[in-house]
Amino acid sequence: MDIRTQTTKSNLKKALLQCMKKQAFSEIKVKDIILAEFNKALLADRSAVNGIDHVLSQD
Q1: Whose CA is closest to 16, among 3, 31, 2?
Q2: Environment class of residue 27 by beta-carbon count within 10 Å: exposed (0-12), middle (13-18) or buried (19+)?
Q3: Using only C-alpha atoms, what is the Rg of the chain?
Q4: Beta carbons within 10 angstroms of residue 52's beta carbon
Q5: Is 17's pLDDT higher than 70?
Q6: Nearest to 28 by CA among 38, 15, 39
Q7: Cα 48 from chain centre
């Protein structure tokens, strides 16, 4: 199996488990799982660029 497929499946399972902590399984929508995974990725991206100087030099 492709590593990207494995990673995606793993991430979706983790997102489902996160959602199950907050609401009943029967109430969870696909949108909830996708948004949970998106938020996790967004936070990871933010922390990765946190120390980057955003000011461009004139040089």
Answers
A1: 31
A2: exposed
A3: 16
A4: 6
A5: yes
A6: 15
A7: 13
Q: Supply the pLDDT for residue 27.
A: 96
In the block, tokens 């004139």 appear at: 58
CB atoms within 10 A of CB 14: 14
Mean pLDDT of the residues in the chain: 82
The three-state (H, E, C) secondary structure of the chain, written as one string = CCHHHHHHHHHHHHHHHHHHHHCCHHHCCHHHHHHHHHHHHHHHHHHHHCCCCCCCCCC
Q: Looking up tokens 């990765």, which residue turns up?
A: 48
Asked if 31 and 23 touch (Cβ cutoff 8 Å), the reply is no
Location of structure tokens 């660029």: 49
